[in-house]
User: Fold this.
Amino acid sequence: MAQWTSAVGAAQLARLLKSQQHRPAGPGTRRLPAYRALADGIRLLVLEGRVPVAARLPAERELAMVLTVSRTTVAAAYEALRTEGFLESRRGAGSWTVVPAGNPLPARGLEPLPPEALGSMIDLGTAALPAPEPWLTRAVQGALEELPPYAHTHGDYPAGLPALRSMIAERYTTRGIPTMPEQIMVTTGAMGAIDAICHLFGGRGERIAVESPSYANILQLMREAGARLVPVAMAEGLAGWDLDRWRQVLREAAPRIAYVVADFHNPTGALADEDQRRRLVEAARSAGTVLVVDETMSELYLEPDLEMPRRVCGFDPAGSTVITVGSASKAFWAGMRIGWVRAAPDVIRSLVAARAYADLGTPVLEQLAVNWLFTTGGWEEAVEICRGQARDNRDALVAAVRRELPAWEFEVPSGGLTLWVRTGGLSGSRLAEAGERVGVRVPSGPRFGVDGAFEGYVRLPFTVAGAVAEEAAIRLSAAAHLVETGSPAGNETPRTFVA
Ligand SMILES: Cc1ncc(COP(=O)(O)O)c(C=O)c1O
Assistant:
């Protein structure tokens, strides 16, 4: 019986392989035999999750034709993959991808590793900061004091605790966007919010317009919901949203949803100005598209004199077009798992129903803790600590990368948690792989793209300080050297780091 659950066509595989070709042929570069390069390319695609595990690969003859190589080359590549444990074949059933036993992947760099599994590895996978103590402890203590009356209830609040819904609504109102508690649903992180939104609007076969690049985990969530992603290219650097392009895509593809991160976009760090915000809302409204605005990063402005533009929902306060998603994960702590949605009351009611079979509700104690922070003013002080940390980390990382990797290009964002780096022509996927061998985990650009885009990029988060940032850049430079010189896999030991 065949062991595959999906298939990758020859043309699709060729496109994915082509997107990896970012290796400069310089003087120190060793040319790999064609079969080896092909096997490496397929292995990387599997490790990054861009070719799923248990996907049937094209027949040798078919792939050879599309790649214009000999059938012997493809046969040798498949044989090498079989030997390395990445492919299984059965006569009559074809060949399908597998991941060797003991391999912790299939996707590199973005999944947080528990600290005890890291060893001497520097983890640049996750863009989230430690909790801004003592505020986490204080908030949990405050929550414990508020808990007794709730302990007498069933504890199920699918729309969120009324007190927290009111508090979040009030915070929008104070910002000049009148909001009622009925317009708020508390969720399990922004991910929980987007999951409910996808359930309601973005089911199988629906189109969702997304920035290209965009936040990898949300892209994957949408793919898994069965949506068809319609990428809209971000302009170079921090220029962000090209509104003529958005208008055209929304008009022509008429997607059900458009998903944007207008405040310190992940991964580029771009910040939409008021004109871009107004025009995004107008474009969505005239296309009949629901504009989902993810404000997860919005409080992480890192320049003291930066004046933040009006929130996108300020251009559609009644919520006829815009659904806003917020989160405590970046401004406070991802371990809280508290997020929220602001939308029209009828949309909130449908979203509450849509999330019911996913997680029923969000933990009461954590909701009380965030509510405590909002009501006591501890939130502002805590966020200020996070901003300071992110700013220092950003500055250390920027200086270290400029020094160690002068050919890498990026623009320094005024907020958020990520640096989107063009890697001087090197393949981001290969850098991610080489990074694991020299002790630094880094997510490659294609994780943030649709269909293999952004092979020439990596994302670096502002999560490590001073000396660790310097060491991270040194290791990235070692990884770049490995990629440039084409050294064989497997015999580099990670450097030991002592902070
Ligand atoms: C833009 C964006 N949205 C959502 C999330 C996930 O948020 P949460 O931890 O609240 O689920 C992240 C985390 O990195 C993010 O960057």
Observations:
- The pocket of pyridoxal-5'-phosphate is lined by residues 127, 189-191, 215, 218, 261, 266, 294, 296-297, 327, 329, 334, 339 (CB under 6 Å).
